Amino acid sequence: MTRAQDILLTDLYQLTMLQGYYQQGMDDIAAFEFFVRKLPPGRNFFVAAGLAQVLEYLQGLHFEPQELDWLRQSGRFDEDFIDHLSQWRFLGDVEAMAEGTLFFPDEPILRVVAPIDQAQLVESRVINILHFQSLIASKAVRCVLAAPDKLLVDFGMRRAHGGEAALWAARACYLAGFAGSSTVQAGVLYGVPVFGTMAHSFVQAHEVEQQAFAHFALAQRDNAVLLIDTYDTERGAQRVVELAAELKQQGITIKAVRLDSGDLAEHARRVRRILDSGGLSEVKIFSSGNLDEYALHDLLAQGAPIDGFGIGTRLDTSADAPYLDCAYKIQEYAGTPRRKRSEGKATWPGRKQVYRRFDNGVMGGDLITTLSATDSGEALLQPAMRAGQIVTPQPNLEQSRQRLYTQLDSLPPALRGLKAVAYPVEVSESLHLLARQLDSEVH
Questions:
Q1: What is the pLDDT of residues 267-283, one digit of tens each?
Q2: Residues of the domain holding 369
Q3: pTM for the full model?
Q4: Is 141 part of any domain?
């Protein structure tokens, strides 16, 4: 896994542009903003996530001697430019929406203001960090809204696209309201509660299924969650009932059983009847296996007696919408607003602020406007870094999680479901005027 501050974890064109800026003496202040152009089908909002990792990346960012040596050996760069990079540091400012903030298309959630070589070089990694965590958090929160009273656990490490992705997915899921993750290192790095049960291999390694249950319960006396569908799900549930009294004599209470295959709703109903008739009404049913917000909605609509869910592949890969149409674009250079006018990819120029208005505590609409304009709503972009140093105190993961809870409480009810519903986002007249002014100029 890469270090957080591997500066060569970037696109080559960032470095080739930097040499061009250097040769021409272009070192004025630039403002770049990160935003998402449109919602994926069926989605109603995004969740801002990843700011903590962006700030960690930027603070103290510089070139190590071995990285400069690689650039020198590549033969692509002038020696005086490489000498210049040896003194390169990120000393810019960052304004951003706090993690856990709900946001919508075209709204900037982060702005970097720095000499252009600094603001430019960090583009690829900033997009990489914000895109992935916001992508996963935005899907995970849909699971939370689909099953608000259920235990939800991230089970996706083994299918995530790499180790860093698995860790960031676990963090993003916890931010979004999951109880925790099966990824142990997420507990070490981020304090995410860690959950785990058992695999089919543990059962198959034993000659007798009930013996596997007993051995696992002895090994995990306070977390006896037994996987019962290796062979026959209902027979597995009956074996749990048969074993429960014996375990209780040893001071072990079976906490839950897990279902991982087949018709989860029907199996859960049958297993619930078996457990209840065997005096194990307190034993929970936990399910996993190709789940997402749509599957959760369907299972609960069927009245499936399932108490918790492990959600993996479809979440950690955001299978239905595996990427966001996001960008990090220059909006100002040398004090002058800049506007991209490419077909289908035009940008709103200049530094901007997003104001959120509320009606009786419910989000009523957002306004994207020029930074110099003011509005009566809540200004969402706030200082996060000044002169390359993190503004303290920054919220921790628990505080960001609480912020999202507050945001969800104010979300219009229609936007909480799985069907697409438009939320009003207005672009101010001052921003329209600035865009028209720049469009009239000849470049």
A1: 999 999 999 999 999 99
A2: 12-136+321-439
A3: 0.96
A4: no
